[in-house]
């Protein structure tokens, strides 16, 4: 009796003429599913609970016929296609009440371990199913979601499985419609329940450490080889296997420790220094002896504990200042201490003056007992002219064991300050300001001094250069140097000033040299050197001297200039030099010396007649 639709036929006959325009409706095809009202043409369902899942579409043939007339009843037909729309009137149903799954214990968390399915004959969104695990045995280990494409329930693992801990799990899964139609609540609950049994399969697993992280402590400077801790791993499989340990080498830091492969004990391999590295972090790997490919890893953290090995030091600058007009008891600097060691909680530093400074009436130290101290003045005023710098030895001591202390020397500079204690100047300039010298005057004086020094240096350099130029024209090539002398000789009596042997005429050169500046005692005629042939020219003379120099072992090993005063044979004037002497002293005539004037009188007396020479008369 549910309304489906209404059809209407029209008749062109005159409705006022009999029953010619009166129409009656009937169904020729479509029964017994649908019925039609003969007068109104309203089509209704004829059977209750028509099921779309059984038949979705229907074709209904409708006839409209008039009631009379001369020609009798006339009829017309039409076809109506009726499609049933789906409603959520069917609950989901599991095809079986128990599902069995086998899951390896090595399955990863979050992975899908199985699927189950409930069937809903509805279509579209009315067939969408939601799966839930009933609280109980498997609620903490498993989860289930719906595959939107297949409407299957996908069971996933929330926590790792362990065959040795539990071998089987049983829980219930509920399937229900996601979209409910309130018109069919009375039909019954639109859900179904099934049981899921999961059997855990035993797998060969890696060893398991007793802790997720190992933390150890060791004092710095601990002797090499000292055991500081141990790690433990076990094979939990049914056939338990032995375990071997080794360090996961990643960098050089791991070499500071070693591990016993069998026992798992960790020992130091090098001396540790907390000031260099305060914490070590590395990994240890455990593997099964029966299957070395099965390994597990654990992180190890080793904290290096501090040993009090460094003395505390002053942490503020080592230099401070004091005003000339400072009063006794005035704090000029607050000092704190720093320790390279890792200071423990409650570390205390004490401050005091050294023994030699305690008796001096200049400064003192006040320990505030909160790891700070104040430098206080003990005098009424200070003078920069008397003493500009003071050196204060400060002893700092820590409270750790063993106790460490150090002496730190603070430099205190006396400064000029105003009446409020503001420092005006601490440099050297402040000492000269009271006598009336300004900064500009000091700069001018310094510039004048620099200019004078430059002038003196230039003058000395020029004098040296001029002296060198007069002595030697060139010092660059020591092989061909011609040296000019501008000095006057010592007179006739200066007989050792230079050797004139190289200037002698070759004919007058003697093997046994006899001094010519004095009268010889005896007329001894030495053996003469063979003279150069009278007809030898200058070229022969040069070649002879060249050969003598070539074979001379004392000749210099570089080019040199040898000067000879030789005029050669055949000169009309013969030799013009007195050096070109006769062969012997006896053949030499010195009478011409008397004609040269009084300057050569002594020479004339010496080389004149022997009886006329009297050395006692020589002045």
TrEMBL record:
It is a single-pass type I membrane protein. It comes from the Eukaryota. Keywords: Calcium, Cell adhesion, Cell membrane, Cleavage on pair of basic residues, Glycoprotein, Membrane, Metal-binding, Repeat, Signal, Transmembrane, Transmembrane helix. It is found in: Cell membrane. GO terms for molecular function: beta-catenin binding; cadherin binding; calcium ion binding. One of its GO terms (cellular component) is adherens junction. Residues 1-94, 95-209, 210-314, 314-432 form the Cadherin domain. It comes from Grus americana (Whooping crane). PANTHER family: CADHERIN-12, CADHERIN-23. InterPro entries: Cadherin, Cadherin-like_dom, Cadherin-like_sf, Cadherin_CS, Cadherin_Y-type_LIR, Catenin-bd_sf. One of its GO terms (biological process) is cell migration. The chain crosses the membrane at residues 431-462. SUPFAM superfamilies: Cadherin-like (SSF49313). Cadherins are calcium-dependent cell adhesion proteins. They preferentially interact with themselves in a homophilic manner in connecting cells; cadherins may thus contribute to the sorting of heterogeneous cell types. This is CAD12 protein.
